[in-house]
Amino acid sequence: MTATEERGVRPATGRPVRGSSPVPAAVVTVGTMALATVPTPLYPAYARTFGIDETGTTVLFAVFALGAVAGLSIVRTRRCAHWAVRDRIVTAALLGAAAAVVLAVVPGLVAFALGRLLSGLGVGIAAASAVTFVTDRARAGGRNVRFWDAVTPGLAMTGLSLGPAAAGLVVGTGALPRWGLYVAIATVLMTSAALLAHRASRPVAPQATNDGPQATNDGPQATNIEQQPAAGPDVRPRTARWPDRLGACTAFAVTGCFGALTPHLLSGGHHQPSATAVGVVAALPFLAGAIGATVLAGRGRWAFPLVVTGLVLVAVATRAFPGTVLGTVGFAVGAAIAGAGAGILFSRSLGSALRNAPPEHRAVAASDTFTSAYVGLAVPVVALGTLLGVVQPSVVIVAFTAVLAVVGTVLTLRPGSHLRDAAVRQRTSAL
């Protein structure tokens, strides 16, 4: 294989080989993540339909988190090393589409729980597989490599922000019925899966040169992109380091905290907030996180100062102005600031995990990082779902902020901290 073909370029024409576009895999990542958070502003309606309380909705979220961790664990197994990465992403898309269809057309609490479980499985498989696939395909095709290196760490949070925003703005305003949004997401995921499967089934014909026939990027030799090489029986996969896991866990714990607090704080504890308001505000920390992961990833030192500043602002707003417009504005601004810091922290943690893993173990490192992230996302939701009835939100936020201040000090000041790496190294070597 020539050097140009290793980059996914045909020697005769200089054009990228077929199937080198990372767009379908990126869409699968965003789509599965969006499906995961669509129910956020709709949970009150589901609770009334199913006759459950806040504890019940917390359990339903736990079902999703269980599915996500299970999907991430599947990717981490040795057997999965023989499963082509493209096929993993197609499977994740089909699981997400099936979950969306179940949520759209099958009534009942059990069906909703099943849909959330399938959604979690799709998220887990996509998160661990697509993050490396997207950047590898961009490099193989020679198309906008810098762009994809920059935006890939923010794909997950972009999708997580689109879910509640779409549910609030589209379903909450009555522009589209709930089932219509789920069907739209299923259509996008199935289309992306079809594009990925189609490109895998139509390899480019080998190019004849003076050196003889050449292999193609979609052929069996393209293991660096299409398939993660299997580790030998005596080779133990190199997992993500504890600082990277802790950073990812902390970043998603921040967003999970806001996801749990938003409905309660917008209601002021006395009335039911609109799905539109909950959706828009719940999307803010994820959207700011996507921007932080993409635009501010080189500012690692900013991560925890932004998180702590945002949480302090939220604590003041909820304590001094509960149930008022000023309190809501303060909460939204604080959520955006803290979300930006969380995005920086997650981008740096994921980049560090992938940078320190050999190519054949990058999927394992991604799986470890995202597993820690979803554990961090689930813990605040489950804990706050049971605590908010007996503890003031401002007390919870202050305690959470104190814990994050300690974690931030440890991660930032430790020798070789990934929050102090040079921005150039982060961008060019991490993914």
Automatic annotation (TrEMBL):
<dbReference type="InterPro" id="IPR050171">
    <property type="entry name" value="MFS_Transporters"/>
</dbReference>
<protein>
    <submittedName>
        <fullName>MFS family permease</fullName>
    </submittedName>
</protein>
<feature type="transmembrane region" description="Helical">
    <location>
        <begin position="89"/>
        <end position="111"/>
    </location>
</feature>
<feature type="transmembrane region" description="Helical">
    <location>
        <begin position="179"/>
        <end position="197"/>
    </location>
</feature>
<keyword id="KW-0472">Membrane</keyword>
<dbReference type="GO" id="GO:0005886">
    <property type="term" value="C:plasma membrane"/>
</dbReference>
<keyword id="KW-1003">Cell membrane</keyword>
<feature type="transmembrane region" description="Helical">
    <location>
        <begin position="277"/>
        <end position="296"/>
    </location>
</feature>
<dbReference type="Pfam" id="PF07690">
    <property type="entry name" value="MFS_1"/>
</dbReference>
<feature type="region of interest" description="Disordered">
    <location>
        <begin position="1"/>
        <end position="21"/>
    </location>
</feature>
<feature type="transmembrane region" description="Helical">
    <location>
        <begin position="147"/>
        <end position="167"/>
    </location>
</feature>
<dbReference type="GO" id="GO:0022857">
    <property type="term" value="F:transmembrane transporter activity"/>
</dbReference>
<dbReference type="InterPro" id="IPR036259">
    <property type="entry name" value="MFS_trans_sf"/>
</dbReference>
<feature type="transmembrane region" description="Helical">
    <location>
        <begin position="327"/>
        <end position="347"/>
    </location>
</feature>
<feature type="compositionally biased region" description="Polar residues">
    <location>
        <begin position="207"/>
        <end position="227"/>
    </location>
</feature>
<keyword id="KW-0813">Transport</keyword>
<feature type="transmembrane region" description="Helical">
    <location>
        <begin position="368"/>
        <end position="388"/>
    </location>
</feature>
<keyword id="KW-0812">Transmembrane</keyword>
<feature type="transmembrane region" description="Helical">
    <location>
        <begin position="21"/>
        <end position="38"/>
    </location>
</feature>
<feature type="transmembrane region" description="Helical">
    <location>
        <begin position="58"/>
        <end position="77"/>
    </location>
</feature>
<keyword id="KW-1133">Transmembrane helix</keyword>
<feature type="transmembrane region" description="Helical">
    <location>
        <begin position="303"/>
        <end position="321"/>
    </location>
</feature>
<dbReference type="InterPro" id="IPR011701">
    <property type="entry name" value="MFS"/>
</dbReference>
<feature type="transmembrane region" description="Helical">
    <location>
        <begin position="246"/>
        <end position="265"/>
    </location>
</feature>
<feature type="region of interest" description="Disordered">
    <location>
        <begin position="204"/>
        <end position="239"/>
    </location>
</feature>
<feature type="transmembrane region" description="Helical">
    <location>
        <begin position="394"/>
        <end position="413"/>
    </location>
</feature>
<feature type="transmembrane region" description="Helical">
    <location>
        <begin position="117"/>
        <end position="135"/>
    </location>
</feature>
